[in-house]
Amino acid sequence: MSEAVGLAGLLEDAARWIDGDPDPATRAELAALVVAAADDPAARADLADRFAGSLQFGTAGLRGAMAAGPNRMNRAVVIRAAKGLVDYLAESLPGVTPLVAIGSDARHHSREFALDSAAIVTAAGAEARLLPPDLPTPLLAYAVRALGADAGVMVTASHNPAADNGYKVYLGGRMVPDAERGVQIVAPHDAAIAAKIAAAPRAVDVPRAESGWTELGPELWEQYVEAIGSPAVAPPAAPIKIVHTSMHGVGHTTALAALARAGFTDVTVVAEQRDPDPDFPTVAFPNPEEPGALDLALALAAEVGADVVIANDPDADRCAVAVDDPRGGWRRLHGDELGAVLGEAVAAQLSSQTPLSSRRQPGSSPSDPDPATPPTLANSIVSSRQLGVIAAHHGVAYRPTLTGFKWMGRVPGLAFAYEEAIGYCVRPDLVHDKDGLSTAVAVARLVAQLKSEGRTITDLLDDLARRHGLYLTSQLALRFDDLSQIPVTMARLRANAPATLAGSPVVTVADLADGYEGLPPTDGILLLTRDDDRVVVRPSGTEPKVKCYLETVTPVAADAAFDTLTSIRAAAAQRLAAIKSDLNSALVA
Q: Does pTM top 0.90 for this prediction?
């Protein structure tokens, strides 16, 4: 009886959704699923999941699988999201006309979702400016600042699987202070927009204009490319050979144009992954961090004798780098390794430019009065602590933040920021978000400079280890089909944290939900051992995972030889493996 009653309720919910969905394709899809659910348990489970709730709008906007129903990405969900956003802008900016910039990548339905958004913004009496199709996320973040837009919408699921899409929201213009313009939303804006979405009418009843928005030409793209690739910044110190892959995304044209503008024209492209393809046919998962994702690029690099591999994820807001390491051949740098070498380059430059009297002294609080707002390096708490040590060495200000560029982008005086998940902000004067394209140019310049000195990124990493000790990081991720198990897993760790990790006693167990060293509360747990090993465990904000970020620090002599460092690296890797094993046992017990 209860199962029949449950199915009847599902069928009523589905009928109401179909009645309010303006898209004939998803109406038909859901109608077919309703018919199948009568006899097929799998179809019934699918239907139940689609109506288990509504896709939640938060600081990451919306992201999910594309299909019919309130718990999926589709036109009906996007239309109500756009309506909620423009209603929030109108309420927040009484008496003025809000301006919204809208961009889209090359995923299935991205342009359709962007056009719906433009139509809804226009119908609501606001001004919509629609970027050309198939462009990178950093260009939308740039556009919010360049156009003085009050908000920006980017339709993208970044590096998620091909079945997904997303709706990322930025604020700017008159909505936020200058330092926060072009940064992804945080509280209380996320909750306020979510409330407006919840109050929006059925999608079919939301007014949509048939015209009236502005479709932008290539001028903004050209300004951005010129800005990140300008040879006036630093011409190549030495000729280098680059292999680039855009991972079937939208970064190819922009990356090559910016590299060429910067003087880097010897670029060999992974042809199979060059053009946008929303099905991502050559990779199991379109994320350069995933095992196997860079196989084609690494093989090509070995074939052509490249100096460096540069890879962008599908919406080009992230950048991965691979090098030919004398300790084992071509390998992708960990996100923290690239963050360290880029941070070292920025800190060294700032140190040479910044008067000693205006530098932040090591140990001072980020909140100490400083009318000059010194240039500041930042990274997320789940990223390596090495950036803070690098900043202190150069007398440059440093600030850790919560995870995500929605926090790092708000750091006053930001000069460089990164998160270990291959996200880097190297041109905060242009983009207050991670930007894989300006990062690609910065990497090329660094490789060229090192080559002119007879050195490589691997040499620079070894030098940093000799100066600061070896910081080695890794990650453990647990994926869940049942999302209810994520809070259960976090509660288990809070109640029964491991007493030791890799044989070293755990001396600190900090619940990040209570706040930590001045950071706002967030769902996470930090463990620190007597040997200075550190683990941070938190639920992912964009995937059904619990992520664990591991770091070990090993002293290194200032004159350590290459072979000695090689042995130290091997021992540190073994220690990380032991920490990972101990932590896995604690999480799945």
A: yes
